Amino acid sequence: MNSTFKITYTLDQDNAAKFALALAKLRLFRAPYILWSVLVFVWIAFMDAGDAYIDSIFLLISVLAPAFIVVVVAIPAAVYAVQRKQLLRLGQRLGTVTYEFHDKYLISRTEQSESKTNYSLFERYIPTKSGYLLQLTAAQIYFVPRTLMSEAIESHIKANIPRQAIAEKTRAKKPWVAALLNAVLFGSGYLYAGRKRVVGAIVLTADLMAATALASYGSFSFGDWREDACFLLLAVAFAIDGYNEAKPK
Question: Which of 16, 119, 143, 178 makes an SS bond possible with 246, Cβ 3.0 to 4.6 Å?
Fold first, then answer.
């Protein structure tokens, strides 16, 4: 017996904001270990303030702190704002969106078009606090608001769409290699694992730029336990997150 579940909604202000936030988190930052460790690094650097460290503090305030703010706050906020604006425009054009979940396929219907997609073509589903993202391709993602989902629909999605992309399963990487790379050269483990590529590229670039700047100033060196501790915390944090990102899920 065929079972059909239906969801109807519009991309209004609320749903567009939820969809945009879910996409921003998916494509940018999901690394609490890293953010926590960077905050510890900044705190320890300020604890070391003194006449002998004036160059380091100047570098921290003029280069590293603004870069941290840009990476952690400005870029995600800009991506979210642009994505939300685009989704609102899309919602105005599409009008009401209806999803019909059948046994073997999903029907997506708007006021302008209708499409039928077999579940086998979906790469994965991504659960978020605001709803489920059903990823068909990297550029085509359906959003199912959690407020409209029943337990039956949630179970139906989990039973028919994989949690992990098939392409990711076929190119599984070794978690310990990703952890080692991330510990030695921050961000490189992400690039190896094929996860968080944007984060990996940004962190790796910032790491190399910071190392170059610090080497030029010649004011930040190993020997003090607090400086050694901050680098160890960063290395451990990146290693843990790199391992978690590379291991099968």
Answer: 178
What's the maximum distance between 2 C-alpha atoms anywhere in the chain?
78
pTM of the predicted protein model = 0.57
Q: Locate 190 and state its tokens.
A: 């992400």
Q: State the first-to-last Cα distance of the chain, in angstroms, to the nearest integer.
A: 32
Segment 15-34 mean pLDDT: 71
Query: What is the torsional sign of CA 55, 57, 61, 63?
Result: positive
Structure tokens at 62: 């003029």
DSSP for the chain, please give it: ----EEEEEE--HHHHHHHHHHHHHHHS---HHHHHHHHHHHHHHHHT-SGGGHHHHHHIIIIIHHHHHIIIIIHHHHHHHHHHHHHHHHHHHH-EEEEEE-SSEEEEE-SS-EEEEEGGG--EEEE-SSEEEEESSSS-EEEEEGGG--HHHHHHHHHHS-SS-HHHHHT---HHHHHHHHHHSTTHHHHHHTSSHHHHHHHHHHHHHHHHHHHHHT---TTSHHHHHHHHHHHHHHHHHHHHHHS--
Q: Give the tens place of pLDDT for each residue, 93-139.
A: 888 999 999 988 999 998 888 999 999 889 888 888 888 999 887 67
